[in-house]
Amino acid sequence: MASETTPPSPTSPSHAASPLHPRIRPRRLRATGPVRSLVREHTVRAGDLILPMFVREGATEPREIGSMPGVMQHSLDSLSAAAREAVDRGVGGLMLFGVPEHKDATGSGASDPDGILNVALRRLHDELGDETVLMADTCLDEFTDHGHCGVLDARGGVDNDATLVRYQEMALAQARAGARMLGPSGMMDGQIAAIREALDAEGFTDVSLFAYTAKYASAFFGPFREAVDSSLAGDRRTYQQDPADGAEALRELALDLAEGADMVMVKPGMPYLDVLRDVVRASPVPVGAYQVSGEYAMIEAACANGWLDRERAVLESLLAFRRAGAAAVLTYYASEVAGWLQEGLPEHLREFA
Ligand code: PBG
Residue 316 pLDDT > 70, yes or no? Predict the structure, then answer.
């Protein structure tokens, strides 16, 4: 590029500062690749990325999720291989979601040691140990026949306090199976305190809680419903947050901190960067952001049409979370991007790493 190799050429000294000849020129620090690199604040690092993974009970082969091209519902074997690959590429953690064969009203598969999620956790724990941070979604929606994140009361509403008991049982099953960090994502009041108490009572004081602190009732979870074969007919607006409310995230943050959350999360990601920023500023514990299924689907759909430069768009989307202050980013791109970083980004993408 000519501008990178041409020596700085003095402009005429007769140019006195004036509205047409600014004295202060931010462009000086953008003039060449090296100067941009020198002043760059943020980069994308594999170790900050967490890969969400889906494992399907009874599957013998991986099955691609239609609305998330490139993302699989794994069999146990393909999960194991993909997890190993992601860890070898340096991703910071794996977040597991289970897709059970049978569902029921209380989501019994979630706390059954032989339920698919717990079987998968045991397997990855055996294979990877502490080479990675093994995480599990602590929520019932994948396991309930009605698709809600909790159990229902007699009138069909989601029963907060009865659900807490199920979360305790589920959390214990996950900890026993080898999960290091649990991601309670159901937005029940008191879920962090309830789970912490159950874990501590069994001696699992080293199992961390990555609280889904600000989680909004979002259209951007759409493809995830396909990913977990969700049975949900209605919506989650009585427990997930209203997209119109920002300040409430800080109330949720205060509660999760008081209840003992080790990390907190904002979800979805890109449409809620303002919330992420607010939470980062207020949080004494590390904050994660979740680039959700719909965000992934949007980028992939645009790229499939040739409307975006895929690598650049993916890296820029991840950088946005780092810039907003996220310590960790859950993203379906985690393993792929970690692979790019491991190989070394091509010259035109160096700015991201
Ligand atoms: C609930 C859960 C959901 C997601 C993560 N955990 C679905 C929901 O709340 O409806 C969504 C993740 C995504 O869209 O990528 N167990």
Answer: yes
